[in-house]
Specification:
By secondary structure, this protein is α+β, with helices and mostly antiparallel strands. It is built from 4 helices and 6 strands; from the N terminus they run αβαβββββαα. The strands form 2 sheets. Strands 1-2-5-6 form a 4-stranded mixed sheet, with helices on one face. Strands 3-4 form a two-stranded antiparallel ribbon. The longest helix has 20 residues.
Length: 165
């Protein structure tokens, strides 16, 4: 019985240590009420910001253990334009033109309390319609997520992008 308890205790400590070594991602939305383009309804705005936060967290989990990523989002302009709908949801129409996705942010990567790298980034994808991908066609934020991926793999983890090719 002592061996079982000891094994469980050691396993728990190892799991706790492994969890603390993984990357921590913090996303802040600075003055989100002033963002260029988010849905009109509060619940849709919250859903969009939650999706973006989740995507940043998924990418940040790829950082080396012990590194933490902080992102301060300063502005968001989603692809397309939103028009008031007749039902519970408004309608977002995405077409070619000057309606490309745009996100302005400031990022900081820390390791052991020391800033490894930081900077401002203006994410833009003016050719978002030319790079359309049918496999992610149902994802509401597919254009924005692909733009974030491009930034992350070129600016934060360029070696990861090379390994994916």
């Amino acid at each position: 019985m002592k061996n079982v308890i000891r094994t469980l205790a050691v396993s728990g400590l190892l799991a706790l240590a492994a969890g603390s070594a993984s990357a921590d991602v913090t996303v802040n939305y600075i003055e989100q009420e002033r963002f260029s383009d988010l849905p009109f309804t509060p619940w849709e705005r919250e859903s969009v910001l939650k999706e973006l936060t989740g995507h940043f967290a998924k990418l940040g989990a790829k950082l080396p253990p012990g590194q933490n990523l902080r992102i301060d989002v300063r502005d968001v302009d989603l692809a397309g334009r939103e028009y008031p709908g007749r039902g519970a949801r408004d309608l977002r129409i995405v077409k070619n033109g000057a309606e490309w996705p745009r996100i302005d942010l400031r990022y900081t990567i820390e390791s052991n309390g020391q800033v490894v790298r930081s900077g401002d980034a203006q994410l833009r994808d003016m050719s978002f319609m030319d790079r359309s991908n049918r496999s992610t066609g149902s994802d509401f934020l597919r254009f924005e997520k692909r733009m974030i991926d491009d930034w992350f793999y070129s600016e934060i983890m360029p070696r990861e992008r090379a390994a994916q090719r």
